[in-house]
Design a protein that fits this description.
The protein is of the alpha+beta class. Strands 6-7-8-9-11-10 form a 6-stranded antiparallel sheet. It starts with 15 loop residues before the first helix and ends with a helix. The longest helix is centred in the middle third of the chain and has 22 residues. It has 12 helices and 11 strands.
Amino acid sequence: MRRYLGGIPPTEERPVESLAHELNIEPLARIMYGQRELFHSNLLAWFFDTLPEIADSVFRDLTVDDPSGIASIRSVERERQSLDLVLRWPAAAPLVIENKVFSLPEREQLDDYRNKTAKWKGAPAQHVLLSMSPPREPVDGWTYLSYQELSERIDLALAECDEVSYEVETVRRYSRTVRLLSALLNTTAVHSTKESVWLDGNQLAAIDLRQTRTALQKLRARRVQVVLEEMGVHRGWVDAGHTRGGPLVWWVRGVRIGGTYLEAGWQYQSGQFRRCVVLPHLIGRSDGDRNARAEFAAAHPQLFDFAPLDDVLGHPDLLPMPLDGFGHFAPDFVHRYVKAPDLSIEQLVGATQAIDAQLEALGE
């Protein structure tokens, strides 16, 4: 008898620490954290080979029939031309699956993969983007499939299966792992620009596994990056990442001052809001290179001036640091910072606009 006639119930919203705890006691989750996308590709390939009838219920309707197709056997390929998964059935177009878990989909990469499959013989391949996060905008030739929907498809297929085996139980546990992971990563979504840039520190501290904390911080940084790209200024570029100092996001743009091209902007990390410059003409790691960058910075104090940001940051009495000189990250980065532990995304948008206007006035 078919269960879940009304569909699979969505994962209920629960505290981050609760989701993380349940995820961390799943053996498959522990394996997943070491291999990320590779884990999912390998397990889904195993699923396709080991439980063909159940797997077909999950994946077959994502492609189209091709009676004249060249495929004569059912098969799965891993990493063909850097493609995560290629599923094949007799009399069907190949199904290409690209999976993204802790990273966001990029149009350029997806377009490149489509160009590769366009050269294959037979019916045009069908493309599925399996991702925790949807692409910023629809990508031609790709169908978005969330991991939450993958879990629902697996559970519906398993509801029709009476088999009791290690293999079936493994797929069942995988579906649960995916559902918990999807709910956990959804906590990094940006719902309003008035939100704090970073995730709540108390919630993160309650998560036992460092890899889980880092993954959430990285994804949050990337999602903040997307919002800044959409709402900031059109000049320059935004980026995000994670270093030993924690998650960070930054914006810089090119400007020519005194005949010298440089990049200037801001960087936000660990409660420090930095006004920064990148000096490609003084790149190097020696003491002499560092001194040359310090001299250039001292000659251009307006590039490190926080006065234009008083209204944006909301703390006109902030004291720029270091008190005497500049901070350096070799081989070309110079900065000063103020302590701003809880900025909102909206404040970063305002800072971008204010600094861009100042640089536009200073530039040649």
